[in-house]
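User: Round two. Same drill as before: sequence, then structure, for each protein.

Assistant: Same drill it is. First protein:
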Amino acid sequence: MESPTRGTDSRIYFSIPLNPNLMHDPSVNALDLLFDPSAISGLNTVATPDFIKTVLPPKNRPQLTIDGDIDSPKSLTGGSQDHDNVSDDDIIGISGTTGIKALDVKDDVSLICIPGKIGEAKPKDIMEGGMAYCENRSLQDCFFIADMPKECLTPTEAKDFVKNDLTKKSDFGAIYYPWIKVTDPIGTSENVKEIPPSGLVAGMYARIDSTRGVWKAPAGTESNLSGALALSYKTTDTEHDILNPFGINCVRQFPGSGIVIWGSRTLGLKSKPEWKYIPVRRMAIFLRVSIYNGIQWAVFEPNDE
């Protein structure tokens, strides 16, 4: 490679000698070799086979114009949604380590929620299976956060679902209503979309656990849900008083506080009233796990057996 001389042509010229006995020819321009076949015609300073001397322009130059309409969105075709072939049994798991039972080998699980399947139909099997899993884990160390089905829009529909459809309730789970409107994070639909509340609620659990402690109810004016724009249904005080005794925790909007969680009851408040509050159940979970981990040193100490 030869650098340009000051005051002369600013282009860089290349010589490619394959025969060390041949002289360099600085007049050969590499760009001309690529894009102008005539520039290499008669080139004698490069000892190459004859077929190399016929140089054609590259065929992969950028296309200056694009066919079709690029201003409107396009949908992918020929595939299928992954969840179309996922059944409730696939999620809950029927044996071994399938579904959420894959968490059996994890000992640091605290919260479980399954928002992706909730909106398709009344997912009582998923909810009941999730609560049963948390209750039946060997250490009983996690809690299930359930979403009210999207089709249960009004308070009456929400109450009827919990009262009549959700037959196997547990104090190891809680349900939240209604759905929450947020800005679509990936922009594939309308600017605002409705999502199940469990994801935001789980984040609030974690925040309250960190700032206050697991003994504090994840609710109240301090439980403002970041990212929530509006609610699919605005519950009144009267409607809230009807839902609360059934263990339905409402997400509500108040002036000065924004959109907050306004309920802290488990779904076992009827069968086990001593465990009707979320912080009571989760505090017991915390104590159980802490004691279990804290006494491992004594497993092989001398004892009376």
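Second protein:
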Amino acid sequence: LLNYTYVGTGPNTTAAFSDSLLATDISGNPILQFDNYEPFPSIDIPRKGVVNVVGNVAQWVSGDTFNTRWLPGTVIVVGSVAYTLDKRPTDTTHLTATNTVIVGGVATVQNLANGTNLAYEISQPILASQQLPYVWGPTDNINFAFACGDPLRPGTLYWCKGNNLDSAPQTNQQDMTSPSEPLQNGAMVGGLGVVMSTERGWLIQPNFFDALATVEGTVGSTWTMQDGGFTRGLYIPRCIAIDGGGRIFYRGKDGVYLSIRGGPEQSITDADLYTLFTHEGEIPQPVTRGGFVCYPPDDNNPNAQRFAVGNGYLYYDYQDTGGNLRTLVYDVMAGGWLFDVYQFAVAVHALEEGPKVNNTLLGCSNGTVRPLALGGNETATSVVVVPSDTKQDDRADKHWGDLFIEAAPGIRSQ
């Protein structure tokens, strides 16, 4: 056998395991994989300091302390000799490392040489388990999930191993942009992934040409990045959502946009909510409809803004410039906006998940979770924020078929 191969399973005790199988019997068994890194491996900034080495163990003295997430294989220079970590540091002040030298044609492993006040330096620490804030997936057939938002590598796209969401080989990452153009978030549409930076977006297409899976990771890129039709990027990371019709809703710098399956986007706010968003340096201004004032979102607090899609509506929850929680609702089929006001301010909308349920849940500012439900009374605070072309407007032809009202009396949040 040319590789470590699975033979059998036994109890995790001192009991002996008897192997009576021939190599030919197990030649088709799974091969040991060396690339099952905890999601997601990344690269730390350079570190240096001073250590004492006693009994082949480096003890921290000054400078940068050790990180217990540094992976084996990280190169560390102690004194003037380069070593590699043989395991993760046991704590923030102790680590071990080795190097290999050729003596008389024979490879010999050497441990850290003893010494005091030795300078150490790691130019490129390899990190395990870099937690990323934005993950989306899975893809069709073989399940992959994508991730981004690494503060150490803002322009890098990560993905897990196919059908194994707990594993992310070091090869499963691709630098998409420079750090000055960070990746913001992504979504799945039509079985394909979409990833967006602050300036543009890509469709993530499978690479069927030169990608090769090995026990140590993938040789060649798993994916081909195809420029989408986006002319604007994703401005607020949590403001992206999709519906079952292949529609991608996302927040740009100057409004809310709709893209069909990654095609050219179109604004769905310019017609009615233009002044709520900045345009060429203009300061956003409130929009007034029916005597009700709709205040612009506070883009200095991006984590207080988010999109959700449920039952034919896009919900845009945000904190306005006055510090108040607001909700804009877009009717996907009608193509119009509503401004919702609730008894308790709502921070998030979410479609309920599970068998035989399809309600929209609201996360309220008082710590409660409430469903949108039929029945009861509703305070008249829902305002339609689209213009009304009446007879006094000579620019528009009037047709009775162009006028409709969508209403569901008695709907309220409990």
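The helical segments are 23-26, 270-273.

User: Perfect.
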